[in-house]
Predict the structure.
Amino acid sequence: MKFVILAALATVAVAAPKPDYARSKESVEQVAILRDDRVHEDDGKYSVDVETGDGIVLSQAGSPDGPDGAIVKSGSYSYTAPDGTPVYVKYVADENGYQPQSDLLPVAPEFPHPIPQFVLDQIAFAAAEDAARGSDESVEAPSFTYGAP
């Protein structure tokens, strides 16, 4: 029974019409590459500068200066969003991850209210406990008993 189901699925998959992208009715706009400069040095450093006819600009440079020879990259790219907004992003990618900078990136709002003192006291207590664990000092912590007395 499983073989019959598998054979039927295989037959349907093989018989399914394949899209013919070359004869698609949708027109595909081809964009000219205005500039494509790439430099790869023997020591692992590189740079790439690309500019297209529709306004996309990419500039990136990298080198194996990260921990254990990891590539550290920095650069920028810009383009025009579909709504007409110009987008410019500057970035660094290193041992701390990808770090973009742009006026269009969302920014977290400021904390809406002050932190209550009892919360700050609890944070300080937890920090003292952590510090005591590292220096073999003891901090008296409350003890809890579970179950019947």
In short: Strands lie at 33-40, 46-52, 57-63, 72-80, 86-94, 97-101.
